[in-house]
Amino acid sequence: MASDMQPLSGHEIPSRVVENCGVSDHACHGKCQSCDSDVKPSCAEVNGISLLIGSHTDGKASKEKCGACTFTYDCAGPDGCLIATNGSCMAVDELTQQFEREQAGAALEDLVFSNDEEEDDSDWDPASGLVMNRWFCLNCTVPNVDEVMYCLNCHELKGSGVDGYDAFKTQIAEAALVSPDTELPEVSTAIGFDERMLLHSELEVKPNPHPERPDRLRAIAASLSAAGIFPSKCALVPPREITKEELLMVHTPDHIESVEQTKNMLYSYFTSDTYANGHSACAAKLAAGLCADLASLIVSGRVQNGFAMVRPPGHHAGVKQAMGFCLHNNAAVAALAAKRTGAKKVLIVDWDVHHGNGTQEIFEGDKSVLYVSLHRHEYGNFYPGTGAAHEVGIHDGQGFSVNIPWSCGGVGDNDYIFAFKTVVLPIAAEFAPDITIISAGFDAARGDPLGCCDVTPTGYSIMTSLLTACSGGRLLVILEGGYNLRSISSSATEVVKVLVGDGSSFDVATAPSKEGLETILQVLKIQQQFWPILGSTYASLQAHEG
């Protein structure tokens, strides 16, 4: 993100009619916006939508059926894709123009649909958004009273906007392309990005803006451009949508179909916090396709490392369900693409503040993929509630799931770097991966409204530097969470600086907090039975603590 945010030119508000429907065992009913005919797509409940209630702001997610889902349907084209050309998404400029035309003349009755039947609208109360005099910070989405000019959470100026994305957008045409069919680029770092991923957004009008929003990518892109990293120091990977055959290696057919169905709906929800619109299926397939191709390019030696600047994120998406803002599991798709290209062993390090329950589930019985997660846990009370230290994998995969569950918020650089030096790096060296994939959520960053931790851009830079040696520099960084625009853009930029060779070198002696040390001792005690190399570290730390 550029150092300055500019005033917003205006606010986009969907002008569609909202209609609520109960979820039956067989079908969800709705009205076609164009022809007014009844439509009965396959039931979201049957195909995996609304299987799990819970959000990043909840405590532990509970597996319950959703009593009501909110759907509004558009007519699909002959190929079943909403606004599609040859089965792919329309160019983003055309879609943006069409969306702006649809907004013209929006009135209050277009935004709020009411009927005489009693409905469950506990997660959507338009009246509260209309009555209260408040504004939402563009940087962190936290609400503020109207009289306050600076956000009480992050001190961002009221009315700020993302500045610098247009510069990045114009530079896309200047970037060198790298693929299996092109000549080797002069640079060793590749970036995966496509503007169509910006079309994935929450369309339903709610009192609070959704934290997983398109501006996350715009802010990072603007920051990379302002830092002089893009396009001069990295190549661009041509985008493609992941194929169904590739997704079937990770997800069930029902899950894939449930995501694909969303292109026939104006908007829909898999869980209370996991939205989709008519472009989300395309965005999710683009994100997964970019991650797969980046992994293949790295393993084949065409580039040394890469950064997947993608959304929607993926590490909560499990074998058969979307949740936690995630539709397809991008890191899992990348890991399997790396193995198809020749990698025998893959290390996934997940530093998102939330446990990557989906990634762990996918690989918990696979000893060729080592999954290490550092996350806020609070004894199962922090979303999604999984990732306790005793979760070590199953069957042949025992010992290949390593969870470092922080017991409280506020965890910062010292705790993370100490965990890297005492747990992550020794196990990684013993495992000797052919490629390292980072599930790089930046919601443990200082100022994040959901993570409430204290990792700095320097801390992320150090962790990236430490991981470069694990697999001969073959490193793929995949964007996951992170909801403070300034934090996510500055942190991502410092990480990419390491990839392109501009990162600062640090040799920091770190002392963890008391709570951090207790967590690390717990992990060492459990994991030393699978990784004996940890035994001496556990004994010395235990003696020191005693």
UniProtKB/TrEMBL annotation:
Known cofactor(s): Zn(2+)
InterPro entries tied to this protein: HDACs, His_deacetylse_dom, His_deacetylse_dom_sf, Ureohydrolase_dom_sf, Znf_RanBP2
This enzyme's EC code(s): 3.5.1.98
Reaction equations catalysed: N(6)-acetyl-L-lysyl-[histone] + H2O = L-lysyl-[histone] + acetate
Protein's GO biological process: epigenetic regulation of gene expression; regulation of developmental process
Transmembrane intervals: none
PANTHER family membership: HISTONE DEACETYLASE, HISTONE DEACETYLASE HDAC1-RELATED
Protein name: histone deacetylase
Organism: Panicum virgatum
Phylogenetic placement of the source organism: Eukaryota, Viridiplantae, Streptophyta, Embryophyta, Tracheophyta
